[in-house]
Amino acid sequence: MDSNQKNVLHGSFRARTRVIPDYSDDPPVAPGAVLGFFTYHSDTEESDLEILTYDPTTNIRYSNQPDEDTETGNTIPGASTDAVLPNNKVWTDWHDHRLDWFDGMSRWYIDDELALEKTKNVPTKPSGLILNLWSDGGEWSGNMTVGAEVIAGFEWVEMVFNISGTNPSKRDQAACNVGCNVDGVQEVGVPEVAFDSMSSDSTSDDSTNDDSTNDDSTNADSTSNDSTSSNSLSSGSSAMVAGGVVDQVAAVVVVQVLAFWALFFFGSN
Questions:
Q1: Domain count, the chain
Q2: Can you tell me the distance from the alpha carbon of 53 to that of 50, in angstroms, rounded to the nearest whole number?
Q3: Among 16, 199, 210, 251, which one is most buried in terms of CB atoms within 10 A?
Q4: What is the CATH number of the domain that holds 49?
Q5: Beta partners for residue 94, in sequence order
Q6: Could you tell me which of 108, 104, 126, 129 has the C-alpha nearest to residue 117?
Q7: Are the CB atoms for 97 and 88 separated by under 8 Å?
Q8: Domain region containing 87
Q9: From the CB of residue 78, how many other CB atoms can be counted at a distance below 10 Å?
Q10: Cβ(110)–Cβ(16) under 8 Å?
């Protein structure tokens, strides 16, 4: 899956997913495939969450690209981490994975628990979001036995993001009057109004900090619900395509799959 929106510049990207185990004793999933969830502008402007099925089911690769020096072939320190998931979690179970991309920092979460953050080689260019499952028999993915298969399941995908340029475009109004929460809501992908300065019974601006996707509400490039941000966002929804602009608060793009399974067959000698 590849988002139509390619001008995303900072945001929070979430997906509930897992690699489906085949319930064999060892290994639980055929080795040789890669499940990717990442922002992408180019091979040197990319922020990755990757599950390699030859890795232990407790490990996920988090990285900002480039993570290798093309001249020396050496790994760039701080750009990539083979991380052990907290609390004995495994990627064969359903989990909510999240990548927050800020100006100068990438953060990865699992089930709302911070797993890792990086400041090395954080992307700076407008990007899209990609989810894929692949194998090429190469050194990175590893070799998959002919006839083997790997299955990935997705329940939903959510994007909350800033944009660079148009589509969707911002309103011409001088300020935004409405703030929304996207975390802690009753239904994933459906923002809830946190405040409306034009309404007499609106809640206070302080409430917008409780469920922000950025701990620093003063960050002008964050996906925070702070309506004073110089890069406040637009609200809308569709299936992987940004929808109509409602208010400059949070752009929310949701794929509510629930009954969707991605089945991929791979094989190489």
A1: 1
A2: 10
A3: 251
A4: 2.60.120.200
A5: none
A6: 108
A7: no
A8: 8-162+256-265
A9: 13
A10: no
Q: Given its phi and psi angles, is residue 167 left (phi above 0), alpha (psi -120 to 50 degrees) or beta?
A: left
Q: Is residue 33 part of a domain?
A: yes
Task: Note the pLDDT of residue 201.
Answer: 53
Residues in CB range of 164: below 8 A, 6 or more apart: 7, 8, 9, 126
Nearest to 115 by CA among 91, 86, 81: 86
The 3-state DSSP class for residue 208 equals helix
Q: Mean pLDDT of residues grouped by 10 in the chain (269 residues)?
A: 91 96 81 97 97 96 95 93 96 97 97 96 96 92 92 93 72 69 84 78 43 37 31 26 26 35 37
| 207, part of any domain | no
Instruction: Decide: helix, strand or coil at residue 147.
Output: coil
Residue 43 makes CB contacts below 8 A (sequence gap 6+) with 65, 66
Count Cα atoms within 13 angstroms, Cβ side, for 243: 17
Distance of alpha carbon 143 from the chain centroid? 27
pLDDT of residue 131: 96
Say which residue the tokens 């089945």 belong to: 263
- pTM attached to this predicted model: 0.71
In a domain, 234, yes or no: no
Residue 42 lies in a domain: yes
65: Cα within 13 Å, side-chain hemisphere: 17
Determine the residue type at 46. Answer: E
